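Example 233, ligand NAP.
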Amino acid sequence: MQKVLITGSNRGIGLGLVKQALENGDVVFAACRNPEDASELNALATQYSEQLHIIQLDVSDAASIKASADAVKAHTDSLDVLINNAAVNPGAKASQLGDLDMDRITKILHINVTGPLMVTEAYYPLLKSGETPRVVMMSSGMGSISGSTGGSYAYRMSKAAINMEAKSLAVDLKDDGIIVIAMDPGWVQTDMGGPSASITVETSTSGQWNVINGLSVADTGGYRIYDGGHHEW
Ligand SMILES: NC(=O)c1ccc[n+]([C@@H]2O[C@H](COP(=O)([O-])OP(=O)(O)OC[C@H]3O[C@@H](n4cnc5c(N)ncnc54)[C@H](OP(=O)(O)O)[C@@H]3O)[C@@H](O)[C@H]2O)c1
């Protein structure tokens, strides 16, 4: 049994990660913006009343991040896995050269980049007391600098930046034994990935859990793929 916290857990990949963690017997802190609207999480809370805690967390709001950490500390004094999964994929106004909107891009970067870093800082004290503590920064193949095919400016920048966060956090947290990786979940059938995506949520999340549960300190600072592979930076 391990204690895990997953942001953006009410739908998509986050919800898939929650379901598999519960099936594995883990204690799950499922963080989401609007717990009252999280119908699937609330149904799971009935089924897994001993294992699942639903926590309010908007990763773009410093007060919400702090309040979430306080709420989790009321249940536990340690955390084994933090998955910074929440993110947004912007529309055209943050993607196409010639039609860029500065406010929109700034908002995307705040949610996708600043948020996960601040969440990690807030949960650092709990992670320090965790068992083989691990932090997953949810990246994307679109975060790869060597693999860029252009366009999608805000999203690509945000995922390249989260890769740098993963690498730098891995350095800074190494002496605490905290393992940090960037994760490419594949192209996944979610609201963000769309119905034509190549893999199901279950394929992505079961692969991700295999990677996460197999991590050792030697793996820190890696850019991993859900299927166990290593991504080109
Ligand atoms: N799907 C893919 O093919 C794919 C590929 C590569 C990487 N990824 C990455 O995988 C992660 C999950 O993607 P997904 O496909 O599951 O996306 P999704 O279906 O669009 O779900 C996004 C999740 O993030 C949450 N979120 C957005 N803004 C938030 C905020 N300010 N605070 C807290 N939560 C917030 C959403 O909550 P609400 O319901 O409240 O909006 C939702 O739970 C993301 O980091 C994404 O970039 C996805």
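Summary: The helical segments are 12-23, 39-47, 62-73, 102-128, 153-172, 201-213.
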